[in-house]
Amino acid sequence: MTQGFNPHPKFSIPMALGVGIVGRDEILELDLCEPMPPETVKERLSPQLPEEMRILSAETMPYLTKSSVSEAEYEVAFKDTGLLSAISISNFLQQSNIIVTRIKNGQQKHFDIRPSIQKVEIKADKLVFSLKMTSEGMARPEEIVHALLMSNAKMFFEIIRTKVNLSSSA
Description:
The chain is mainly β. It is 14% helix and 34% strand. It has a domain of 103 residues.
Protein backbone atom coordinates (compact mmCIF):
# COMPACT_ATOMS: atom_id res chain seq x y z
CA MET A 1 0.00 0.00 0.00
CA THR A 2 1.09 3.55 -0.55
CA GLN A 3 1.84 5.72 2.48
CA GLY A 4 -0.08 8.79 3.54
CA PHE A 5 -3.62 9.82 4.44
CA ASN A 6 -5.35 7.78 1.70
CA PRO A 7 -3.29 4.60 1.18
CA HIS A 8 -4.14 2.59 -1.91
CA PRO A 9 -2.77 -0.57 -3.53
CA LYS A 10 0.44 -0.31 -5.52
CA PHE A 11 -0.06 -1.60 -9.04
CA SER A 12 0.73 -0.58 -12.57
CA ILE A 13 -0.38 -1.34 -16.09
CA PRO A 14 2.80 -1.06 -18.18
CA MET A 15 0.95 -0.03 -21.35
CA ALA A 16 -2.60 1.22 -21.02
CA LEU A 17 -4.96 0.50 -23.89
CA GLY A 18 -6.04 3.31 -26.16
CA VAL A 19 -9.73 4.16 -26.34
CA GLY A 20 -11.58 1.62 -28.46
CA ILE A 21 -8.74 -0.93 -28.55
CA VAL A 22 -9.49 -4.42 -27.26
CA GLY A 23 -6.88 -6.14 -25.07
CA ARG A 24 -6.53 -9.89 -25.28
CA ASP A 25 -3.36 -10.48 -23.21
CA GLU A 26 -2.70 -7.54 -20.90
CA ILE A 27 -0.26 -7.21 -18.02
CA LEU A 28 -0.85 -5.92 -14.49
CA GLU A 29 2.02 -5.55 -12.03
CA LEU A 30 1.16 -5.72 -8.32
CA ASP A 31 3.23 -4.97 -5.21
CA LEU A 32 2.02 -7.31 -2.47
CA CYS A 33 2.25 -6.69 1.27
CA GLU A 34 3.66 -10.17 1.81
CA PRO A 35 5.22 -12.82 -0.42
CA MET A 36 2.66 -15.11 -1.98
CA PRO A 37 2.88 -17.92 -4.55
CA PRO A 38 1.67 -16.78 -7.99
CA GLU A 39 -1.07 -19.45 -8.04
CA THR A 40 -2.48 -18.11 -4.76
CA VAL A 41 -2.58 -14.58 -6.18
CA LYS A 42 -4.40 -15.91 -9.23
CA GLU A 43 -6.89 -17.88 -7.08
CA ARG A 44 -7.63 -14.88 -4.83
CA LEU A 45 -7.99 -12.27 -7.58
CA SER A 46 -10.01 -14.31 -10.09
CA PRO A 47 -13.34 -14.24 -8.17
CA GLN A 48 -13.05 -10.44 -7.82
CA LEU A 49 -12.92 -9.80 -11.57
CA PRO A 50 -15.79 -9.19 -14.01
CA GLU A 51 -17.02 -12.34 -15.76
CA GLU A 52 -15.42 -11.43 -19.10
CA MET A 53 -11.96 -10.91 -17.55
CA ARG A 54 -9.67 -13.84 -16.76
CA ILE A 55 -6.18 -14.16 -15.29
CA LEU A 56 -4.18 -16.30 -17.68
CA SER A 57 -0.98 -16.51 -15.67
CA ALA A 58 0.87 -15.05 -12.71
CA GLU A 59 4.56 -14.93 -11.94
CA THR A 60 6.90 -13.54 -9.31
CA MET A 61 9.36 -10.80 -10.19
CA PRO A 62 12.26 -9.57 -8.06
CA TYR A 63 11.09 -6.57 -6.02
CA LEU A 64 13.59 -4.08 -7.40
CA THR A 65 12.98 -5.02 -11.02
CA LYS A 66 11.52 -2.26 -13.16
CA SER A 67 9.81 -3.42 -16.30
CA SER A 68 9.04 -1.51 -19.45
CA VAL A 69 7.26 -2.39 -22.66
CA SER A 70 9.62 -3.67 -25.35
CA GLU A 71 7.02 -4.55 -28.00
CA ALA A 72 3.31 -5.04 -28.63
CA GLU A 73 1.43 -7.16 -31.16
CA TYR A 74 -1.86 -6.25 -32.81
CA GLU A 75 -4.57 -7.63 -35.08
CA VAL A 76 -6.85 -5.40 -37.11
CA ALA A 77 -10.16 -6.73 -38.41
CA PHE A 78 -11.80 -4.62 -41.13
CA LYS A 79 -15.54 -4.52 -41.65
CA ASP A 80 -14.76 -4.32 -45.39
CA THR A 81 -12.17 -7.11 -45.84
CA GLY A 82 -11.68 -5.87 -49.41
CA LEU A 83 -9.48 -3.13 -47.95
CA LEU A 84 -6.82 -5.77 -47.30
CA SER A 85 -6.30 -6.25 -51.03
CA ALA A 86 -5.41 -2.53 -51.32
CA ILE A 87 -2.47 -2.93 -48.93
CA SER A 88 1.05 -3.29 -50.33
CA ILE A 89 3.06 -4.50 -47.35
CA SER A 90 6.35 -4.87 -49.25
CA ASN A 91 6.23 -1.25 -50.50
CA PHE A 92 5.29 -0.10 -47.02
CA LEU A 93 8.19 -1.89 -45.34
CA GLN A 94 10.72 -0.66 -47.94
CA GLN A 95 10.17 2.93 -46.86
CA SER A 96 12.97 4.32 -44.70
CA ASN A 97 10.69 6.92 -43.05
CA ILE A 98 6.96 7.03 -42.46
CA ILE A 99 6.10 10.39 -40.95
CA VAL A 100 2.79 10.97 -39.18
CA THR A 101 1.50 14.14 -37.56
CA ARG A 102 0.38 14.02 -33.95
CA ILE A 103 -1.40 16.81 -32.14
CA LYS A 104 -0.54 17.31 -28.49
CA ASN A 105 -1.59 20.32 -26.42
CA GLY A 106 -2.78 22.04 -29.59
CA GLN A 107 0.60 21.69 -31.31
CA GLN A 108 1.47 19.51 -34.29
CA LYS A 109 4.44 17.20 -33.93
CA HIS A 110 5.92 14.97 -36.59
CA PHE A 111 6.81 11.40 -35.63
CA ASP A 112 8.56 8.74 -37.71
CA ILE A 113 6.68 5.47 -37.10
CA ARG A 114 8.96 3.36 -39.32
CA PRO A 115 11.61 2.53 -36.63
CA SER A 116 8.83 1.11 -34.45
CA ILE A 117 7.48 -1.33 -37.06
CA GLN A 118 8.86 -4.87 -36.72
CA LYS A 119 6.54 -6.93 -38.90
CA VAL A 120 3.36 -6.53 -40.88
CA GLU A 121 1.41 -9.35 -42.53
CA ILE A 122 -2.06 -10.48 -43.47
CA LYS A 123 -3.32 -13.63 -41.76
CA ALA A 124 -6.82 -15.07 -41.98
CA ASP A 125 -8.48 -11.87 -43.25
CA LYS A 126 -6.79 -9.75 -40.58
CA LEU A 127 -3.90 -7.35 -40.62
CA VAL A 128 -1.30 -8.47 -38.06
CA PHE A 129 1.68 -6.40 -36.95
CA SER A 130 4.16 -5.97 -34.13
CA LEU A 131 5.59 -2.70 -32.91
CA LYS A 132 8.68 -2.15 -30.79
CA MET A 133 9.39 0.62 -28.34
CA THR A 134 12.07 3.02 -29.54
CA SER A 135 13.86 5.83 -27.72
CA GLU A 136 11.36 8.21 -29.36
CA GLY A 137 8.29 6.13 -28.43
CA MET A 138 6.03 3.66 -30.22
CA ALA A 139 3.81 3.95 -33.25
CA ARG A 140 0.09 3.85 -32.55
CA PRO A 141 -1.83 1.02 -34.21
CA GLU A 142 -4.26 3.35 -35.96
CA GLU A 143 -1.28 5.22 -37.46
CA ILE A 144 -0.09 1.95 -39.01
CA VAL A 145 -3.54 1.28 -40.51
CA HIS A 146 -3.86 4.76 -41.98
CA ALA A 147 -0.29 4.71 -43.34
CA LEU A 148 -0.78 1.29 -44.94
CA LEU A 149 -4.01 2.38 -46.60
CA MET A 150 -2.54 5.83 -47.39
CA SER A 151 -5.76 7.37 -46.10
CA ASN A 152 -7.09 9.10 -43.02
CA ALA A 153 -10.65 8.56 -44.23
CA LYS A 154 -13.08 7.14 -41.71
CA MET A 155 -13.28 3.38 -42.03
CA PHE A 156 -14.59 0.68 -39.76
CA PHE A 157 -12.05 -1.60 -38.17
CA GLU A 158 -11.40 -3.18 -34.80
CA ILE A 159 -7.93 -3.09 -33.24
CA ILE A 160 -7.04 -5.92 -30.87
CA ARG A 161 -3.81 -5.90 -28.89
CA THR A 162 -2.89 -9.56 -28.69
CA LYS A 163 0.38 -9.40 -26.73
CA VAL A 164 2.53 -7.04 -24.68
CA ASN A 165 6.15 -8.04 -24.13
CA LEU A 166 8.19 -6.53 -21.32
CA SER A 167 11.88 -6.04 -20.77
CA SER A 168 13.17 -5.54 -17.26
CA SER A 169 16.13 -3.92 -15.60
CA ALA A 170 17.12 -4.10 -11.97
